Amino acid sequence: MGGRASTRRGPVAKVSMCLLVVVAALGFLTDVAAADNAGLSGSTNSTSSFTTGWTQRIQSHNGDDISFDQDTGHDLVIRWAKCSDPNNVHGASIHQSWSWGYLNIGTNFSGGTCFVFQYRGYNSTGGFSGHVSWNANFA
What we know:
By secondary structure, the chain is an alpha+beta fold. It is built from one helix and nine strands, in the order H-E-E-E-E-E-E-E-E-E.
C-alpha cells in the first residue's frame, strides 16, 4: 500500500501552535513598546518663567520619544532641555492639561541624550503630578 502518512493534528496540537504564535507576537510587541516610566511632580511659581526639574533622564536608543501624562494639578506648559545646559531648550513648549492623557514632549532623540523637564503654569500656579515615559517610540 503506497498510502500517505496522516498529518492530522489533534486539538491539543492546534491549541499549542496558537499559543506559540501569540507568545511570539507578544514578545515582539513588548520589546518594541517597552518604555521607562516614572512619576513627575512639582510646583510652578510663575506663568511666565520656567522651573527646571531636578531629575535627569537619559534616552537609551536612537529615535525614541518622551511624553508626559498629567494626573493632578493646574494646566502646565512643559518642555525639555539638555542636562548640561538648561538654557539649551529643545522642542516646543506644550500646553498640558490633566484631562488630556499622554502628550509627546520630544521626538526622535539621539541615544545617550540627557534631558530634564522645564515647566510653568499656563494660567495659574501651584502643584502638579503626572507620569513621564521615555525610551519608546510614541509617534
